[in-house]
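Please discuss these two lines.
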Amino acid sequence: MLLFLPLAAGATGAASPAPVSADIRMALARSNPAFTEDGARLYSVDLLRRFYAARENRPGWVGAQGPRPEARALLRTLRASRADGLNPDHYHLEALARLVSENFAALPAGTRDRRLASLELLLSDAFLALARDQRSGRVDPATLAPRAPASDPAGPSEAGLADVLGGASPVTVMRRLAPDRDGYGRLRDALARYRAIAAQGGLSRIPAGHVLSRGDRGVRVEALAARLAETGDLPGFTRGDDVYDVDIRAAVIRFQARHGLRPDGVAGPVTLAVLNRPARAWIDRLRVNLERIRWLPRKLPGTRLVVNIADFRVTLYVNDAAVMSERAVVGRRYRQTPEFSGAVRYLVVNPAWDVPESIAVKEILPAVRRDHRYLQRQGFEVLEGWGARQHRVDPARIHWQRISPSRMPYRFRQPPGPTNPLGAVEFMFPNPYDVYMHDTPSRWLFDSRRRTFSHGCIRVEHAMRLAAALLRLDGREDPGLYLIHAASGGETRWIDLRDPVPIFIVYRTAWVGGSGSIQFRRDIYGRDAQVLSALDAPAAAAR
């Protein structure tokens, strides 16, 4: 489907000028039409060719003597893309501003027609590029490492296209293309606020010194209060408030909760370090997370699971409302949990753990070489062969020191039991990463603020409660009792879901919380910098 197409000829002004149409046709007919007459590069040549061929090369943005009002409206729309964290310079802004302000009436006829054709093509190309970026993101998630979820196919809806062709303004159409979910609008507002703070000199800094807590007073407490007031955590602040009272303590707790810190109401080293980050850091974080929202489908399923890796949390939504939220453990920095989407198709009660080859070679084999009783203590079985030829092998008969990691002939399996790392239930959503959600016997892991302990899979704190919720959604009566009965025998059981539940594993370091507050989290894997770099990279050909 074509994206935005310029206003239909004749919508405003006189009939389309034939000489400009001829120059449009000649420009696009060249073997290499990637550059316009004045040297600007076009991004969407094939799309422009199809579009202008379909309309017999009639211009829509320009008339016989110069640009129409719609051209200047588009310039305003391009400049406004900065509010979405995009860079207007990526959409031919400099060249367009120069061409739109040109005195076309003073040019010779041939030169005027060629330059009007260039302006026409650049305007359409700029709109196409911005429309694509607003709808599905400027950064191609497939180019990231690890790759992020694939975005929606670029292209507006039939209704949006019809509105544009009928004369809707570019700014109206662009706003319709941008996401209207996941708090996108509130994040845009937050970006504007932080930019305003930066323009006024930036966020206040708290001088270095000791930990601040209730009862303290002095200039550092006043600086703390001023900083909290700037981001709305301490309303009603007035200069001279230099006592760490109950109001400042409550504001510190609000700030800590919004940033995933321990909400103890004490301004310690970690809290002070986060408070002293410059406005630029928060601006960048907001821009990155606006882009991440654009990657996901425009309309998310009303019933879905969302795993926010950076927040260490799994949330179940029903009819777009969060009905359950559980703490989670995600992958270590060197075994990161990837971002992707899928669907939970079945549950495994009392799962056995078939150890992935990478873990078998890098972790279990060295442990067995150090301690020949390791497998017995952990309850691992050693398997050889596949299918009908698969059989168990006595680990005491294997000379482990002679086993080459590059030619590992054995596999390890841990049967269901109290030491099995998958716990009582596993949530299966087939994916190329072999990453799943599951229970865990290591309950203490959930007490940590930074829960990066797994090999990439997602461990859920109350996994059986989540499993019961999914079975209830699937129409099972008394799912809790059903799960208890399924687990009581100790045997592995598979439970298919009649209606698979979509799951989105995302990485959000800024989002809008349930109360409307802007939440920030630490960039645990360092992915924000990669997205920001791609977001600010020079404009290139359309992906």
The CA atoms of residues 14 and 63 lie 7 Å apart. The domain at 300-352+419-508 is CATH 2.40.440.10 (L,D-transpeptidase catalytic domain-like). The longest strand covers residues 493-506. The chain has four domains: 18-177, 204-276, 300-352+419-508, 354-414.
